[in-house]
């Protein structure tokens, strides 16, 4: 099974993890898969967490690594953040660091 699915909307890559859980067992592989997309030259990325029901600190760390890899030249938004995953973002105050949108289209609009 592929870890991520990549689509495009208005020159923005939309990465959708195909996982219910992003935890220590898959965080490294997930991070490497997303970083390959960044290394291919993408400057704006939407991370669609629709299927993700649980994330631990290692999963959140993987997303932070992607943000760092994009650096000042890139943009990252997350969308479809709900339940326990949204609670993690709020608890760690990462909801203040990441641009969070309702849907992929909303995220694309905010990054455009």
TrEMBL record:
NCBIfam families: ant_ant_sig
SUPFAM superfamilies registered for this protein in UniProt: SpoIIaa-like (SSF52091)
Ranges for domain STAS: 22-111
Protein name stated in the entry: Anti-sigma factor antagonist
Native source species: Noviherbaspirillum album
Family named by the database record: Belongs to the anti-sigma-factor antagonist family.
Pfam short name (any one): STAS
InterPro entries hit by this protein: Anti-sigma_ant (IPR003658), STAS_dom (IPR002645), STAS_dom_sf (IPR036513)
Domain of life, per lineage: Bacteria
CDD domains referenced in this protein's UniProt entry, alphabetically: STAS_anti-anti-sigma_factors
């Amino acid at each position: 099974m592929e870890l991520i699915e990549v689509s495009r909307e208005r020159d923005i890559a939309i990465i959708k993890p195909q996982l219910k859980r992003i935890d220590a067992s898959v965080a490294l592989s997930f991070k490497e898969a997303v970083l390959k997309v960044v290394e291919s030259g993408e400057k704006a990325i939407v991370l669609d967490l629709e299927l993700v029901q649980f994330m631990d600190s290692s999963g959140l760390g993987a997303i932070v690594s992607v943000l760092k890899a994009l650096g000042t030249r890139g943009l990252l938004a997350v969308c479809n953040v709900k339940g326990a995953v949204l609670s993690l973002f709020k608890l760690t105050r990462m909801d203040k660091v990441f641009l969070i949108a309702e849907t992929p289209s909303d995220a694309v609009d905010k990054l455009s």
